[in-house]
Every structure is written in C-alpha cells, then in structure tokens.
C-alpha cells in the first residue's frame, strides 16, 4: 500500500456481497499508530480484534471499512448510524492548489478510515512548537466503520479550474419543485464530504480535520449532522425508523442487489449523460434537508398517518399486507372498496411501477437542530440518495411527490444540492486525479 504508515494486515467480517474489510494501522518503523484493544483504534500497540495474538472477536461496529475499491465507500457499504456532511466552496483560483488539497485529503481520509490520526504522529509528534496535524478528539477511538465519500458540485465545473469540458450532462442543478422553501445558505457547494461512522465523534473528527487541511483553499458553505440512519443499504441490516416513527428504507436498493445497483446507482462508462471514463463506477448524490413538522404529525391519528405513508406503523407492512417485506399490491381493495394503499400514499407515488421503473438508493439521516425560534423543534430527514442520473431518477420522482404526496402537509424541503461522486480509488490513486487528467 502506498500510503505512508498504513498496512493491510487482516480482514474483519464480511456481510453478503458487501464485504466489510478491516484495515489496521501498522507500527512498521514509521512512528505511526498501531492497533489497540478489541478492534482498530488510534492509540497503542496491542493486537487488533481478529488479528494474530488477539483473543477478542471483531466488533463489526468498530471495524474499519476499506477506503479503496471499485466504488467509493459510503454508498452501498452498510449505512452507519451517524453522519457529518459538509458542503464546501473552493476559495482559491489556483487549480494546482485544489489538486494538491485533493491529494492531501486522500492521504488523510485513508488514514482516518483505517483508524489512524490524520497524519503520522498527528497528535503530538510535531513537537511543542507546531500546531498538531491531528486535532486529537478521535485519538484512542476505533475506526468505527468510518467512510468518507467525496462529491463534486456543478459549480466546480465553471471557468475557474479548467474543468468546464469535464462536466457531466447529468450534473445539472436541480430544478425548482412545487413547495420548495430552499435556503441558499443550506444549498449548493463546489465540493461535498460525507463522513459516516458508528461514533459521532469519529465522523465529526474526520470532517474537521479535512476542513482544517483545506484552510485558505476551501471554505465551509453548510454542514449537517445526522444522529440516526433512516435507511438500510444491506439486507443484513434491520430497517431503522424516521422522525415520524415509521420504518424507512424497507424497499431501498440494497448492496446485495447487484443488477439493481448496476441499473440504478452506478454510472456506466458509456452512459450518455454520465461524464465518461472519470465517472464510470461513480454515482450522483442528491442531498435534501427536509424539515418535518413533527408537532403536527404527532397530533395526527394513527390511521391517517398510515394512509399517508401507505404502510402500517408497527410492522412496516404495505397496507393490505401482513409483513414488512411483502410485495406492495396497489390494486388490492380494502373493506371500504377503496384501494388499501391510497392513491396519493407516499409509497405508491414513489414506487418504481408508477415512475417507469425508476429507483434510487436512499441513505438519509434523522436530524434535530435545536429549535425554530417559535416553539418547535427543527427536526427532520436529511435525505441523501445515490443514483445514475438525477435528471432521469430523482427529478421525476420528486415532481410526482411534490404534486400529490399528502406528506407535503407535514414536511418542507429547505436545503438542496447535487454532487458527482467519482468511482473508488485503486492503490496509489488520489481524489481528483482522473478528473484533472
Ligand atoms: C424524491 C424521493 C423521496 C423523498 C424526498 C422522500 C422523502 C421522505 N420519505 C419519508 C418516509 C418514507 N419513505 C418511504 C419509501 C420511499 N420513499 C422514496 C422516495 C422519497 N422519499 C422511495 C423511492 C420509497 C420507496 C417506495 C417503494 O418502492 O416502495 C417509506 C416506506 C418504507 C420504505 O420502503 O423505505 C417511508 C416511511 C419521509 C418521512 C420523507 C420526508 C421527510
Ligand atoms: Fe420516502
């Protein structure tokens, strides 16, 4: 492995076709960190879980997820419980500076996802007279399943960095949708970094250290914390619940469904709108900050809640069926002679059968950001979805929802952004290398 101070020593666990591999940090004469305790940690030199000499079984939640691979981690890898998402603007006009930053980010991201400090000896190794190269708040914590996923916004492809000819057709700003209440301070961005982990401190540490490395080159435009996943991206995961108390992610595209991923999530080399070779194996990310008026929802009768979603609250089964994963039957009638799943239920409007076969991979998070200043919690869903072409997938889906979804009475979209997330990196490659080639 090319990155100084890191070595692949063993694999921890695997789940279905979405293998969760662990990387531990080698001590190999670099002064870099070595694994500790029962899994990958930033700290001392006891053997990691599952490693020779360890008596402790690996804990999947603490394990490291490989940074490199065909696709970026953080898309179909099992959704972790915590999120720190940041959108950034590039403030330099110098393309070479931006490229160097992307290289430095690659090194630091690879280290942090393996459970190491952002730089070798980052905590105190620089001595008393220099600012430490790692901010320290994750020192001693395990890798915690950290994934860091990068995306490029449409504005990165303007005339500043010579990238205009590289802009994919699919990377268009989203159109306005009926009911949008978008705040420009929570929208857009030249770049994004999505850090997901099973420990919030690890996710926040990752973003903070990458932002720190970018001082003078990038500036934070907006950022969002998420405290609980609202989607499953693997059949091995239980379906979590959103802030309306409903299971969310049941009928998501999952890591094990390789044909669906190829059809709906990964950009193919010959996709007309995809962007060509530099985006092949990548995916487009749509982010929407959706405020949920939970106080109003909480006064809504159960039957009405279930009719709005189209599934029952306890089991998560489609209305008219018994079990969570039963097939939705949109023709089935209830005792009143009406369809069991109402014509304007959320799951009917968003279902592939109503949208010419379109699907997306959802990977969103619950948030609660204090109060709205007038007596309510500012809570909601930070909707994240990956797809092959937003114009052909998210746009028609959101148009259908914006037009008829009864859920609209309870929600408000107040932030929006779209990003091109390039494919994963092979050994020795760095973020931006293919884009700038
Ligand atoms: C444009 C895409 C979507 C937005 C925006 C969206 C917002 C949103 N969704 C829920 C709650 C649920 N959504 C569910 C299913 C579901 N939602 C979308 C798309 C968007 N949702 C899709 C494609 C689907 C799957 C439809 C299907 O194929 O069956 C569900 C049911 C469980 C599930 O299958 O995931 C819930 C619950 C909220 C609260 C919300 C905005 C705040
Ligand atoms: Fe939904």
UniProtKB/TrEMBL annotation:
Residues 239-424 form the Dyp-type peroxidase C-terminal domain. This is Deferrochelatase. The chain crosses the membrane at residues 12-34. Residues 34-54 are annotated as: Disordered. Its cofactor is heme b. Its main location: other. Binds 1 heme b (iron(II)-protoporphyrin IX) group non-covalently per subunit. Pfam families: Dyp_perox_C (PF20628), Dyp_perox_N (PF04261). Residues 72-227 form the Dyp-type peroxidase N-terminal domain. Belongs to the DyP-type peroxidase family. Involved in the recovery of exogenous heme iron. Extracts iron from heme while preserving the protoporphyrin ring intact. Keywords: Heme, Iron, Lyase, Membrane, Metal-binding, Oxidoreductase, Peroxidase, Signal, Transmembrane, Transmembrane helix. It catalyses: heme b + 2 H(+) = protoporphyrin IX + Fe(2+). The keyword Metal-binding applies. It is an enzyme of class 1 (oxidoreductase). It is found in: Cell envelope. Its EC number is 1.11.1.-. The keyword Plastid does not apply. InterPro entries: Dimeric_a/b-barrel, Dyp_perox_C, Dyp_perox_N, Dyp_peroxidase, EfeB/EfeN, TAT_signal.
């Amino acid at each position: 492995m090319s990155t100084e101070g890191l070595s692949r020593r063993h694999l921890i666990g695997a789940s279905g076709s979405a293998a969760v591999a662990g990387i531990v940090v080698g001590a190999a004469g670099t002064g870099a960190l070595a694994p500790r305790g029962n899994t990958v940690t930033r700290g001392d030199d006891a053997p990691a879980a599952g490693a020779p000499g360890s008596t402790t079984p690996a804990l999947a939640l603490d394990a490291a997820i490989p940074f490199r691979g065909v696709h970026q981690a953080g898309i179909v890898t099992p959704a972790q419980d915590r999120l720190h998402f940041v959108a950034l603007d590039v403030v330099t006009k110098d393309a070479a500076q931006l490229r160097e930053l992307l290289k430095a980010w690659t090194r630091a991201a690879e280290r942090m996802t393996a459970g190491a400090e952002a730089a070798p000896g980052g905590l105190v190794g620089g001595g008393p007279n220099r600012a430490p190269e790692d901010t320290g708040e994750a020192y001693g914590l395990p890798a915690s399943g950290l994934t860091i996923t990068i995306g490029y916004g449409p504005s990165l492809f303007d005339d500043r960095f010579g990238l205009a000819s590289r802009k994919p057709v699919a990377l268009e700003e989203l159109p306005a949708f009926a009911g949008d209440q978008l705040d420009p301070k929570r929208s857009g961005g030249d770049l994004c970094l999505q850090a997901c982990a099973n420990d919030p401190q690890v996710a926040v540490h990752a973003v903070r250290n990458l932002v720190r490395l970018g001082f003078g080159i990038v500036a934070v435009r907006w950022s969002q914390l998420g405290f609980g996943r609202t989607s499953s991206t693997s059949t091995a995961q239980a379906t979590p619940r959103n802030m309306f108390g409903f299971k969310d992610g049941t009928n998501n595209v999952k890591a094990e469904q390789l044909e669906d991923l190829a059809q709906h999530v990964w950009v193919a080399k010959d996709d007309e709108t995809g962007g060509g070779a530099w985006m092949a194996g990548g995916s487009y990310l749509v982010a929407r900050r959706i405020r949920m008026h939970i106080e109003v929802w909480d006064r809504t009768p159960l039957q009405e809640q279930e009719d709005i979603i189209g599934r029952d609250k306890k089991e998560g089964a489609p209305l008219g069926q018994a079990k969570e994963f039963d097939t939705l039957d949109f023709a089935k009638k209830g005792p009143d002679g009406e369809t069991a799943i109402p014509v304007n239920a959320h799951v009917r409007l968003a279902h592939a059968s109503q949208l010419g076969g379109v699907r997306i991979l959802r990977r969103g998070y619950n948030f609660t950001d204090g109060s709205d200043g007038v007596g309510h919690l500012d809570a909601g869903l930070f909707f994240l979805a990956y797809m092959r072409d937003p114009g052909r997938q998210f746009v028609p889906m959101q148009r259908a929802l914006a037009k008829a979804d009864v859920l609209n009475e309870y929600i408000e979209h107040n932030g929006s952004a779209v990003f091109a997330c390039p494919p994963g990196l092979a050994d020795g490659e760095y973020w931006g290398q293919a884009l700038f080639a």
